[in-house]
Amino acid sequence: MADCLIYWKACSAELNEFTSDNPGPWNLHYHSKSRHLFNQVERGENLWIVVLDTMPPPGDWLLIERISVIEKRHKPEFPRPYQIIGDPKKSLCFDIRKQSDLTPVLHELNFVTGKKILANAAKIAYSLQCIRPLTSGDSALLQRYSKDLPTVSRLSEMLPTQI
Q1: Distance CA 63, CA 101 (A)
Q2: How many helices (H) and strands (E) does the chain have?
Q3: From CA 24, how far away is CA 13, in angstroms rounded?
Q4: I need a surface site. Which of 23, 54, 68, 114 has the fewest CB within 10 A?
Q5: Dihedral sign, CA of 123, 125, 128, 130?
Q6: What span, in angstroms and rounded, lies between the C-alpha atoms of 106 and 39?
């Protein structure tokens, strides 16, 4: 298995459902309807989660989280029953208010499939509709890119947000 890149399409809508008093379930967790994702990722691997900035001018891609998988849970009673739990000591929430566009880095990724992202701006979303397993070189590139990014202790610190 490998680290994976994931596009959190509904980030803006989901974050806006919560306030700083009720921070929501995402901090270092990822909840999904996708059994494929659940089966794809293993303990010790990372989910690199990206979002599209929709504020004018739209089109910047931002790195919002690195979740280092410590546990997986299946909760069929939830709308998104596949839960990936991050290790709080290794996972990070990045401050998207203080980032530049991630597009140049996304264009450098090779992915396990060898299919690079060629699109720009919002059209990159089409390349990220499915889970994108990363090569070890891709993971290292994201690690280098993220090492100097500012972080927040929880995603709700960025409310209201620009996503």
Answers
A1: 9
A2: 5, 8
A3: 12
A4: 114
A5: negative
A6: 24
The token pair at 5 is 């890149």
Contacts of 90 (CB under 8 A, 6+ apart): 68, 70
Alpha-carbon distance 139 to 142, whole Å? 5
Q: What is the pTM assigned to this prediction?
A: 0.86
- Token pair for residue 6? 């994931």
Angle (CA) 143-157-87 rounded to 5° is 45
- Give me the DSSP letters along 68-107: EEEEEEE-TTSSS-EEEEEPTTT-EEE-GGG----HHHHH
> What does DSSP assign to residue 156?
G
pLDDT tens by residue, 145-157: 999 999 988 776 6
Class assignment of domain 4-151?
alpha beta
- Rounded Cα distance between 57 and 33, Å, is 31
Q: Give residue-wise pLDDT tens across range 113-130.
A: 999 999 998 899 999 988
111 dihedral zone (left: phi>0; alpha: psi -120 to 50; beta): left
Based on the number of CB atoms within 10 Å of its own CB, is 113 exposed (0-12), middle (13-18) or buried (19 or more)?
exposed
